[in-house]
């Protein structure tokens, strides 16, 4: 007899290390991996960070993964930068969007939310919670928003920017309706590539991690255009869209294009009453990390100013990830600082007015 | 007997007109259609322009389709604007990229090229020809570039910006190799959505024509990133990438992101010797139509100046399409005009130096 399908195993993929060229040995030895037995189930992306996407210095001295130790997070982030509030977005939880099974995805999202409200919310009034939902299950997402969206620590809903379709599509309207009813923004956070979700560019699959990471801004653009064109904020005026980690420099270019194309062909979307850029200015907020760095800073701020960017940008660090923006060294124009570092987020998330205090030494200077 | 699959027909889809609401009656009556018996075979896009994408005033008085009558093209474009040269890109020919059968696609491209060289090239020395290839058949594309790329009227190769994968991918290298050998740029022209090609955004299928049209800039971004990351210009230094009709305002934002991500993770692409923006400045050119229109023009030009945009932009009108940019009314900064309206294209396409002449009244003023 001949058996023509037998699988030979290994205990660890590390057996391949001696057989790899040095540059790829480095990927396999130190890079991002889909995870073992205790990892969170999600469709892992095909673009693996060659060193893993954590800042090595965020590993807590007490052991465990980055950003799992509250005291160390205080030391490295909340106290160090004297933050009034930190919007927590979890880590892998939002990646439920990549799963084919929408019921399992919603079940994992519910478990994630109960865990984060049980264990993180009570720790510190400065921590504000984002609840995760599975957008591929819009009715389940709506039910979850209504179930936990009223918890006093909850400030927003989060989904990945990777998706099967753009979020303005009627398929997702139950999710927007529930968010509006609960007066919560929905944040589309960079991620969720892989699994059942679309490729992250308009040209099919890119190749390298750095190439892909730079191009992930395209996911933010696509959702922005879709949500504006479908008139989500005409239908559901008490929610907002927050684009997290998609960058900000592209925003003027895309809004100029959307305004021009809408103006020419507005008969396609008769439910809109204002220009796309006008809806964006009122209903869309964009976090700053990773902030683009032109040779001439005016090249960024002059463009952003043209679309009222001072009212739309909100500071974010992305702690504990590799491309962290440090509040002490990230530069904003002096007349933008109060709005971007504080005021815009405080208004969006309806956080109490800041107490007068000493000027934090160097913060955002 | 019961036959459970019988098809009832109509002579024309116009039978549906009385049954449609007014706004969609307009789409069906006046909008873009996939075409009848004599149309060119391609996988038609799912995003149909609600009025068709031609300027109505370009229909020749002699009958026929827009831009089919040479004398009328002279009257409306070449003579009216006193053009030294016009780079012809054909019309539907490049859409062969959407076909599943790469051999048929290449055969249609060859026929298209022979037709355009037979009928258009001899008409006027001002007309420069772009030969079409089927990128999904890279060896066939390379053979076609070598077959007709040496014709004295040929100035570049054109493919659609819609594609199955980004054009830096090794799959496409035979096409780049042949273009470099023949000293021809490859233009990726907006289009080629539909058929076997990728959805035009990084979030799955958008919905409306105007939304999609604004977002088609994402196809240009994806190819730009891919071609730079794969080091196409290190391997094939005698070709260039021209992005046609993808807009220009996003270019600084994307290059800033690419530079930052490359700098952080350049070990992934050790064949690169310079920053992505430095390769782009030397090897990538971008046509200006549809030129974005900020409220404050400086918001556009300051950003473009940061990446050396004056050396990269080339004027284009998109005649005879609906969103034509008129050379008399499109505004460029005074110190950019010579390069953008003339010098950059003349250098790229190796066209003879301009003869001294009277200042064309008003052109680009």
Keywords, separated by commas or semicolons:
homodimer; 365 residues; alpha/beta; TIM Barrel; seven-stranded parallel sheet; 12 helices; 34% helix; 8% strand; disordered C terminus; Amidohydro-rel (chains A, B); Metal_Hydrolase (chains A, B)
Major β-sheet profile of chain A: 7 strands, parallel
* CATH superfamily grouping of chain A: Metal-dependent hydrolases
Total number of beta strands of chain A = 7
Gap between N and C termini of chain A: 76 Å
- CA radius of gyration of chain A is 21 Å
Spans of chain A of at least 5 consecutive residues whose pLDDT stays below 50 are 360-365
Q: Considering DSSP H and I runs of 4 or more, what fraction of the residues of chain A is helical?
A: 25-40%
Structural class of chain A: alpha/beta
Output the helix-strand order of chain A: HHEHEHEHEHHHEHHEHEH
Report the oligomer. homodimer
Average pLDDT for all residues of chain A: 94
Content of β-strand of chain A: 5-15%
Q: In order across it, which strands form the biggest sheet of chain A?
A: 1-2-3-4-5-6-7
The dominant shape of chain A is: globular
Most extensive interface? A-B, 78 and 78 residues
CATH architecture of chain A: Alpha-Beta Barrel
How many structural domains of chain A?
1
Number of helices of chain A: 12
CATH fold-type name of chain A: TIM Barrel
The CATH class of chain A, by name, is Alpha Beta
Domain Amidohydrolase-related (chains A, B): 42-351
GO molecular function (chains A, B): carboxy-lyase activity; hydrolase activity
Protein name (chains A, B): Amidohydrolase-related domain-containing protein
Keywords (chains A, B): Lyase
């Amino acid at each position: 007899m001949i058996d023509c399908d037998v699988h030979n195993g290994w205990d660890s993929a590390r057996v391949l290390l001696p057989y790899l060229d040095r540059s790829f040995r480095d990927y396999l030895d130190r890079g991002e991996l889909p995870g073992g037995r205790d990892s969170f189930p999600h469709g892992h992306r095909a673009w693996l960070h060659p060193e893993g996407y954590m800042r090595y210095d965020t590993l807590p001295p007490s052991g465990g993964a980055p950003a799992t130790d509250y005291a160390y997070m205080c030391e490295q982030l909340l106290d160090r930068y004297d933050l009034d509030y930190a919007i927590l977005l979890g880590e892998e939880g939002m990646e439920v969007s990549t799963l084919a099974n929408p019921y399992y995805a919603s079940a994992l999202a519910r478990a994630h939310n109960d865990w984060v409200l049980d264990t993180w919310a009570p720790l510190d009034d400065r921590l504000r919670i984002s609840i995760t939902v599975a957008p591929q299950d819009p009715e389940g997402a709506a039910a979850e928003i209504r179930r936990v969206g009223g918890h006093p620590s909850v400030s927003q809903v989060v989904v990945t920017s990777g998706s099967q379709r753009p979020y303005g599509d009627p398929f997702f309207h139950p999710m927007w309706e529930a968010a509006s009813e609960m007066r919560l923004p929905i944040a589309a956070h960079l991620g969720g590539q892989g699994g059942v979700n679309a490729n992250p560019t308009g040209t099919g699959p890119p190749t390298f991690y750095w190439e892909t990471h730079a191009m992930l801004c395209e996911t933010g653009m696509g959702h922005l255009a879709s949500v504006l064109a479908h008139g989500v904020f005409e239908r559901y005026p008490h929610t907002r869209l927050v684009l997290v980690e998609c960058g900000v420099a592209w925003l003027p270019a895309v809004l100029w294009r959307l305004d021009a194309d809408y103006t020419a062909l507005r008969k396609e979307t008769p439910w809109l009453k204002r220009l796309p850029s006008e809806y964006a200015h009122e209903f869309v907020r964009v976090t700053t990390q990773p902030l683009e760095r032109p040779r001439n800073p005016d090249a960024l701020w002059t463009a952003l100013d043209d679309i009222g960017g001072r009212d739309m940008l909100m500071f974010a660090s992305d702690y504990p990830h590799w491309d962290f923006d440090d509040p002490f060294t990230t530069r904003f124009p002096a007349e933008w600082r109060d709005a971007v570092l504080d005021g815009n987020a405080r208004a969006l998330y309806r956080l109490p007015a800041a107490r007068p205090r000493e000027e934090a030494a160097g913060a955002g200077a």
